[in-house]
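Is this the right way to post structure tokens for a design question? Let me know if I should format differently. Anyway, here goes:
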């Protein structure tokens, strides 16, 4: 089936609305994506027909709800080519990362151990490790990035090697939510596998897939990563559900321990001890799960799968290169992040979003004028303050895309930017008398 953003738009009811009396142009999908009718209906269907608590009931509705929970888990895990037993459903990527910190790092780090992150991380994959390092008297090492905002793989490998046996965890984003840079995660994981052989002990790798899962095909098994996290609401699913995919050995060895306790995750409770559920998916689901949101996320996964993630990626790349080309024509705009492929690479290593500085105009003013024109973008530091501080940016403006975004949306962005020019820069001075 040919990919058609125009046809896809018909599935997203919100795109029919107007803001400030203008047709909505939604270019803030990296913050949260819009939801297709199929996702909204899946949530609705659950509450209209099946709602009951899972597992604990012996009645029809409870059985149906349990089935909906398990079916949803199967579909979501399948989307990432993972086994459902490797999937822990959480509220979002942030909660998944905290789970790795409290459930793994706090039980496996020793004083002076090293956690490495990159300079481009979202606060969710930065603050969590800064805090975990503090709790465990470990060190946080921040890997350098170059002027384009890319990780320098050779330099990173040398920095990681420097820590020898002290290096225990590497946490990096798959795709930057600010520059759109796609990190060479396969290569970073391969470096860690070589280093761990040399060190004679594992180096665990966490990949933050919050911005890759919505745009790129992700195969959890072949990535050979220890932990992969994602947020449902950025990949057409509802807010309130995300996931953590975990390598089997971390689950079976008990190295990843539960970090939330209570009902549902136990096999037996005595006054002096508790035995936790042997099945990982149950062991890590304390309390009543959000079945409706899981059903919504499963519908989102089915929707993306039906489009084909290769096609989703190809469309996104077209949008990114069109936006770079059009914005690149404006002298008042300074583009953030790479605009040319790496030497020897066949395509540009960026997806999802295009951020920029408008010379002489604050990003919030840019976003406000765009909003008045019906164009919704994000301005600020996008939860990447270390990145912004490194480059001396106070705030940037970001346009980000999804399957329903079109080149016409980008044209409307450009029209909005000409309004910014009129308001803040004024007409070009006439030729001097
Ligand atoms: C790269 C990246 N990681 C993590 C997150 C956190 O996602 P959430 O707020 O859904 O937990 C975001 C959100 O913007 C992100 O872009």
């Amino acid at each position: 089936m040919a990919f058609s953003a125009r046809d896809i738009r018909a599935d997203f009811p919100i795109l029919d609305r107007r803001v400030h009396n203008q047709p909505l142009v939604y270019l803030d999908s990296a913050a949260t994506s819009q939801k297709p009718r199929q996702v909204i209906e899946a949530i609705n269907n659950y509450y209209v027909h099946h709602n009951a608590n899972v597992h604990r009931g012996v009645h029809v509705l409870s059985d149906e709800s349990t089935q909906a929970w398990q079916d949803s888990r199967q579909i979501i895990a399948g989307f990432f080519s993972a086994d459902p037993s490797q999937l822990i459903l959480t509220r979002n990527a942030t909660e998944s990362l905290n789970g790795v910190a409290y459930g793994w790092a706090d039980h496996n780090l020793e004083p002076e151990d090293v956690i490495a992150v990159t300079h481009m991380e979202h606060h969710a994959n930065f603050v969590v490790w800064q805090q975990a390092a503090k709790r465990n008297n470990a060190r946080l090492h921040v890997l350098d990035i170059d002027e384009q905002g890319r990780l320098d793989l050779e330099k990173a490998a040398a920095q990681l090697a420097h820590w020898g046996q002290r290096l225990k965890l590497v946490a990096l984003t798959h795709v930057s939510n600010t520059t759109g840079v796609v990190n060479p995660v396969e290569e970073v994981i391969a470096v860690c596998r070589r280093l761990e052989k040399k060190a004679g002990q594992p180096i665990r790798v966490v990949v933050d897939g919050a911005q890759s899962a919505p745009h790129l095909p992700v195969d959890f098994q072949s990535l050979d990563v220890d932990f992969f996290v994602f947020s449902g609401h950025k990949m057409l699913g509802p807010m309130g559900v995300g996931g953590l995919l975990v390598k089997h050995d971390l689950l079976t060895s008990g190295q990843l321990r539960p970090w939330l306790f209570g009902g549902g995750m136990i096999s037996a409770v005595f006054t002096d001890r508790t035995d936790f559920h042997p099945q990982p998916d149950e062991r890590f689901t304390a309390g009543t799960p959000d079945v409706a949101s899981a059903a919504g996320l499963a519908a989102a996964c089915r929707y993306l799968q039906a489009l084909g993630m290769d096609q989703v990626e190809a469309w996104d790349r077209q949008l990114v290169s069109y936006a770079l080309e059009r914005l690149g024509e404006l002298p008042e705009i300074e583009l953030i992040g790479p605009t040319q492929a790496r030497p020897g690479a066949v395509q540009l290593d960026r997806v999802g979003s295009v951020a920029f500085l408008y010379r002489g105009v604050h990003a919030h003013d840019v976003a406000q004028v765009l909003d008045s024109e019906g164009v919704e973008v994000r301005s600020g530091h996008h939860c990447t303050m270390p990145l912004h501080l490194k480059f001396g940016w106070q705030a940037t403006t970001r346009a980000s895309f999804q399957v329903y975004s079109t080149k016409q949306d980008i044209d409307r962005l450009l029209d909005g930017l000409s309004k910014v020019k009129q308001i803040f820069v004024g007409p070009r001075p006439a030729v001097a008398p």
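Format looks fine. Someone answered above. Worth noting: The mean pLDDT is 96. DSSP finds 15 helices and 17 strands in the chain.
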